[in-house]
Each structure stands twice: as C-alpha cells, then as structure tokens.
Amino acid sequence: MASQSRPLLEPIREEFSEALATLEKVLVLGSNRGTDSTVRISLLNSVIVALVSTAEESLKDLFKAYLEVIEQNIGQHRLLPGPLQNSNLDSGIAILRVHIKENRSTAAALALQFAQCVNGGAPYVLFKDELTNNRGNFRSGQVTTIAKNVGLTEFWQQLSDAVEILDLTGEADLAVRTSDVIRRWNEVYDERDTIVHRISQANGWAEGRIRDAMSLFKIVINRVTVCLSMSADSLIEQHRIRIGLRSSETREAP
C-alpha cells in the first residue's frame, strides 16, 4: 500500500536539503581566505544561525504535516491514540483561554470545535499550532516535548536507531548513540545562542565544524521524516484494520 504520509512529508525534507545547498554556497564564501577576516567570520556565523532557523522551521512543518495526515485519515477524535487525544484537548483548552481573554469574537467557534473533540466524533480538528509550539527553540528537550504531544515516545532513540546515525557517531550501543546525537545537536544550539546573544564571546567555528553541523542536521531531518512517516502510516493502517473488523462484525451480526 502506498504511503499516505510521504506526499506531505517529503517536500518538507527536500526543501530543507535545498536550503542546505544555499547555505553551502555561503559557507564557501566564508571560507575564502581572500575575504576580509571580519566579513569571513560574519559569514560563517550567519551559516550557523541560518542552519538552526531553517531546521526549526522544517521540524515544525514536519510535525504539523504528521498531524495533518492523521487528521485526514483517522475520522474520529476518539479513535486517535490516547496520548494524542489528551494533548489535543489540553491544547484546545490553552487556545480557548487565550481567545476568551484576547478575542472573544472567535472564542465561541473555537469552543464548538473543542466540544466536538471532547465528544470524540467527527468532524474534529487537531490544534496543530499549539501541539507543535516549540516555545522559541528546538533543542533536544523541546523536540522530545513536541514528539510526546503528538503521541510519540522515545523519539530520539527511534531517530538514532539507524545506520546513518551509527556511521555518524561510531557508537554501537543505541543508548550511547542517542546521547551522542543529542549532545551534538545541542552543541550547535549553544553556538547559535552565543552568536545571537553574546557575539563577542563566539568562538567562531571553522569551516570543517560547520560542515559537520550541517551534515548532522541533514541526517536528523531525514530521520525525523522517516520516523514520522512510519508512525503515521502505521496508525492509519491500524485504523483501517480496526474499521474493517468493525464493518465485518456489523455485517455478520444476526
């Protein structure tokens, strides 16, 4: 059976790869020894900042696309995985509170949407913006939080259970490998934050280290795409089997 999620997820991954190709050109300029040293450092630092920002946008889009494909293919809120149901209800409450305080003209319509989710039927909405709100960053802990919001546990471990992560880290043990990927991911964030908030203290990563960061982020985005696609397709298939069994039982009932 053709994947239901790939058509939504793959374009996001491809767009990230295209953005990396553009950043590669900037990196080449920043590595040119003929360029003024101050300009060169600025270019190299800009690659790190842009890399993180682009990855954050792609991650948010991937998680939202994951929710969209689930919403399209699982017809009732009560048939969603329990953790996703609970997170979605919590998100609806949070959004409703904001609307009641700031924009009561839309609160009534939102309350109706929320009530439909509580009732468990169809149609329903997943509050995607709230579920995927990264609270200003996508450090490893925030990725874990959003993954849990959409019903996925041990997400970094799933992500790291792949040959490309093994090749990257050289760690055969999955737990050690996962910790290594998380450490590398957060180190890029540490450097980005230093550049943005304390530029005078920035170490000024050399070209090689920036290339390593770009490779890491590409692998992680690829793995997130694969993990989300596999999860979505599995949930949809389980839903179809469950609905099929129910239909069969109905037909066979005396």
In words, what does this structure look like?
The chain has 254 residues and is mostly helical. The longest helix has 46 residues.
Give the overall form: globular
Class from helix and strand fractions? mainly alpha
The chain-level mean pLDDT equals: 90
Largest sheet: none
- Succession of helices and strands: HHHHHHHHHH
Low-confidence stretches: 247-253
Cα-based radius of gyration, to the nearest Å: 22 Å
Q: What is the beta-strand fraction?
A: under 5%
Number of helices: 10
Question: What's the arrangement of secondary structure elements?
Answer:
Elements: H1 6-31, H2 37-73, H3 82-102, H4 104-119, H5 128-131, H6 140-149, H7 155-160, H8 163-169, H9 174-197, H10 207-252
Helix pairs in contact: 1-2, 1-10, 2-9, 2-10, 3-4
